[in-house]
């Protein structure tokens, strides 16, 4: 990866030269400016990853420069340097969103520590080498391992199965793989296989001929054709009906699709990336997912961790989210207080990154100050916990609780549990598979 680019601003030329030499010795690329106006010109020519600015300068001081930079690139970290440091100035600067405050004479190691910390918490601009992964914000070792595997597999054309809990970013990873591949200049098209009824899903994937079914007044090109030359992302592949699984397997084997109601096959060149939050091994055992399709899709498996396994990413994600949300809603919010960040970082986040985004967006919308306090985060978390779930979430929650109850009553006897539920054994096993429940774990727990 390219060295981080630092913009150093001070009207003391000798100090500029000294700090520049120190930072360049650490491998950073440094641009210097002797005034706020010159710094803004440098900023527009070549956007830095971090700004270090003197506080007291003629015409435009460090805080005025900070606000100008935030208008141009919200969230970019700024470290203030001053020979006139005081507690009130430091408190005022950090409340306004300044990353840090260093007092002259500047200690060499303290400078390096501040710069490293600021860069570690900054999403950063993508370089030519890592632009494919620019949308994935992380400093987690677990995520870095996943991304390295994704980069390696992107160069081949094998099918990839991305597994992980809902809201963990499976589509984002799939898109990153596409951007790192030789298919990057062709379409990336995504579809949720669990969101459509069977006939409509078949039509969306493979297309249909005119008159193929009631309402088919004209021919329709399916997503396989639309993604030709590129990547087709099949989200929640575990929810695809068995009859469609057969047709998908045939399309992958023959590299041809046949639109619904047509007798003509069409050649397609598509890479498949699929994703699921379900246990497909259990689904196969329950007869809910075809084994031959599973091995066709799961040539390489990439597992995305839940957010609770990458808690160190929460401050980084929050900073990135605030920047995006504030820009979209023209809000003046610049970030969260340290206490608020600590509260967010220690949550378990069952809804993962998607849930975190919802809470951050609510806080930004309700905040009346540039820095969001802990109390507002507590309010947003309580509101999020009490939010009415969607119909599908409520149904899934009821089903899971009901199945656990009947399995406890029957001590894992599937025949008796299916009889209580009014389902045949096959359907009941499918329900258990959908909710990742193993009857054997309920033996002796009545």
Folded structure, characterized:
InterPro entries: AAA+_ATPase, AAA_lid_NorR, CheY-like_superfamily, Homeodomain-like_sf, P-loop_NTPase, Sig_transdc_resp-reg_receiver, Sigma_54_int, Sigma_54_int_dom_ATP-bd_2. GO terms for molecular function: ATP binding; DNA binding. This is Two-component system response regulator GlrR. With 446 residues, this protein is α/β, with parallel strands linked by helices. It has four domains: 5-120, Response regulator (Rossmann fold, 3-Layer(aba) Sandwich); 131-303, Rossmann fold; 307-385, Helicase, Ruva Protein, domain 3 (Orthogonal Bundle); 391-442, no CATH class. 47% of the residues lie in helices and 13% in strands. The protein contains 19 helices and 14 strands. It has helices at residues 13-25, 36-45, 62-72, 87-95, 108-120, 141-154, 170-180, 198-206, 223-226, 242-254, 280-285, 291-297, 314-329, 338-345, 352-366, 374-385, 391-409, 414-421, 425-434, and strands at residues 5-9, 29-33, 50-54, 78-82, 100-103, 160-163, 188-192, 231-235, 256-257, 266-267, 271-276, 300-303, 335-336, 371-372. Strand 1, helix 1 and strand 2 form a beta-alpha-beta unit. Helix 13 packs across helix 15 and helix 17 (391-409) crosses helix 18 (414-421).
């Amino acid at each position: 990866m390219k060295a981080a680019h630092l913009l150093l601003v001070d009207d003391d030329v000798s100090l500029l030269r000294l700090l520049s030499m120190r930072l360049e010795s650490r491998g950073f690329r440094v641009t210097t400016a002797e005034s706020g106006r010159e710094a803004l010109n440098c900023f527009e020519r070549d956007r830095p990853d971090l700004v270090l600015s003197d506080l007291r300068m003629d015409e435009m001081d460090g805080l005025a420069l900070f606000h100008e930079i935030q208008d141009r690139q919200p969230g970019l970290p700024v470290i203030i340097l001053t020979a006139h440091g005081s507690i009130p100035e430091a408190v005022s600067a950090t409340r306004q969103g300044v990353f840090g405050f260093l007092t002259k004479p500047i200690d060499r190691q303290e400078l390096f520590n501040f710069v490293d910390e600021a860069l570690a918490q900054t999403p950063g601009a993508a370089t030519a080498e890592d632009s494919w992964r620019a949308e994935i914000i992380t400093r987690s070792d677990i995520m870095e391992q996943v991304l390295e595997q994704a980069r390696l597999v992107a160069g081949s054309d094998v099918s990839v199965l991305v597994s992980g809990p809902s809201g963990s970013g499976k589509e984002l990873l799939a898109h990153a793989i596409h951007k790192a591949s030789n298919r990057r200049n062709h379409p990336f098209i995504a579809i949720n296989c669990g969101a459509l009824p069977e006939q409509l899903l078949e039509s969306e994937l493979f297309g249909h001929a005119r008159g193929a079914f009631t309402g088919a007044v004209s021919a329709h090109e399916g997503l396989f054709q639309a993604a030709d030359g590129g990547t087709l992302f099949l989200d929640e592949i575990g929810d695809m009906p068995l009859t469609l699984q057969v047709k998908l397997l045939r399309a992958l084997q023959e590299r041809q699709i046949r639109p619904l109601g047509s007798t003509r096959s069409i050649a397609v060149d598509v890479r498949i990336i699929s994703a699921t939050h379900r246990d497909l091994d259990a689904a196969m055992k329950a007869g809910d997912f075809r084994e031959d399709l599973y091995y066709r899709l799961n040539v390489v498996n990439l597992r995305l961790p839940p957010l609770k396994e990458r808690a160190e990413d929460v401050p980084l994600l929050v900073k990135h989210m605030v920047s995006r949300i504030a820009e979209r809603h023209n809000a003046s919010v610049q970030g969260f207080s340290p206490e608020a960040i600590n509260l967010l970082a220690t949550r378990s986040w069952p809804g993962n990154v998607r849930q975190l985004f919802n809470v951050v967006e609510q806080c930004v919308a309700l905040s009346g100050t540039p820095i969001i306090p802990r109390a507002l985060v507590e309010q947003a978390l309580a509101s999020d916990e009490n939010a009415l779930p969607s119909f599908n979430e409520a149904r899934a929650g009821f089903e899971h609780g009901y199945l656990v109850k009947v399995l406890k009553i029957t001590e894992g006897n599937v025949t008796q549990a299916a009889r209580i539920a009014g389902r045949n054994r096959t359907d009941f096993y499918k329900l258990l598979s959908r909710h990742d429940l193993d009857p054997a774990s309920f033996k002796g727990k009545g």
